[in-house]
Amino acid sequence: MNLPNKLTMVRIALVPLVVIVYLCIDDNFWVMDETSGLAFRDVLVFIIFATASITDMLDGMIARKYHLITSFGKFVDPIADKLLVNTVLIMLAYTHQANIIAVLLMIARDLFVDGLRMTAASQGKVVSAGFYGKLKTVLQMVAIVFLLLKNWPFSYLGLPVDQILLWAATLVSLYSGYIYFMKLKKYILESM
């Protein structure tokens, strides 16, 4: 297994750690900032999430630079990304830090796009992530950072940057899903 694939597997292994830390450490244990409610647990989960996100960036850079792109990597990397992002979004919705409607819309879009891609792939058409798909991922990750950090430092200003980013990620997610559908609808609709 090459280094990019090992980094992807590390990202997958960090997902259960995020869940364990988030669900097993009480958010009232060591509140670090009274204004925002930022607690030790939030910072710890942020560090794990940031580490996992950095592995995502590194595995892609290394794979492209050293021509280490594999079928395994193409298959597992997007799964690792969605597993990480969607798991954290679900936990944030569970604790009412993220709007459940936004989270459900983004997860539904991911399932829809994965179905489109699988159908197209079964007919020999491979579709890589486009600009809006990549923008969606960046917005999701940045939104998650601010949600995990309880909107710090913007909580001091009363600006809901975390929620704005969450809804921006949702809108871009839905738009990129629409673009995928328009590109791939002929593979879906041809058998109707």
Structure description:
This protein is mainly alpha-helical. It has a single domain (3-189), classed as Four Helix Bundle (Hemerythrin (Met), subunit A) (Up-down Bundle). The protein is 74% helix and 3% strand. The chain has helices at 3-24, 40-65, 71-94, 100-122, 131-148, 161-189; strands at residues 31-33, 38-39. A two-stranded antiparallel sheet has the order 1-2. Helix 1 (3-24) packs parallel to helix 3 (71-94) and helix 2 (40-65) runs antiparallel to helix 3 (71-94). 31% of the residues are buried. The model has no long low-confidence stretch (mean pLDDT 92). Pfam families: CDP-OH_P_transf. It comes from Faecalitalea cylindroides. InterPro entries: CDP-alcohol_PTase-I, CDP-OH_P_trans, CDP-OH_PTrfase_TM_dom, CDP_ALCOHOL_P_TRANSF_CS, Phosphatidylglycerol_P_synth.
* General form: globular
State the CATH architecture: Up-down Bundle
Structurally, the number of domains stands at: 1
Strand content: under 5%
Fraction in helix: over 70%
CATH top level label? Mainly Alpha
Terminal CA distance reads 42 Å
Query: In total, how many beta strands?
Result: 2
Strand order of the largest sheet: 1-2
Structural class: mainly alpha
Mean pLDDT: 92
Oligomerization category of the chains in this entry: single chain
CATH superfamily: CDP-alcohol phosphotransferase transmembrane (TM) domain
Helix-strand pattern: HEEHHHHH
Name the poorly predicted regions.
none
Largest sheet: 2 strands, antiparallel
Count helical runs: 6
GO molecular function, one term: CDP-diacylglycerol-glycerol-3-phosphate 3-phosphatidyltransferase activity
Function: This protein catalyzes the committed step to the synthesis of the acidic phospholipids.
InterPro entries: CDP-alcohol_PTase-I, CDP-OH_P_trans, CDP-OH_PTrfase_TM_dom, CDP_ALCOHOL_P_TRANSF_CS, Phosphatidylglycerol_P_synth
Keywords: Lipid biosynthesis, Lipid metabolism, Membrane, Phospholipid biosynthesis, Phospholipid metabolism, Transferase, Transmembrane, Transmembrane helix
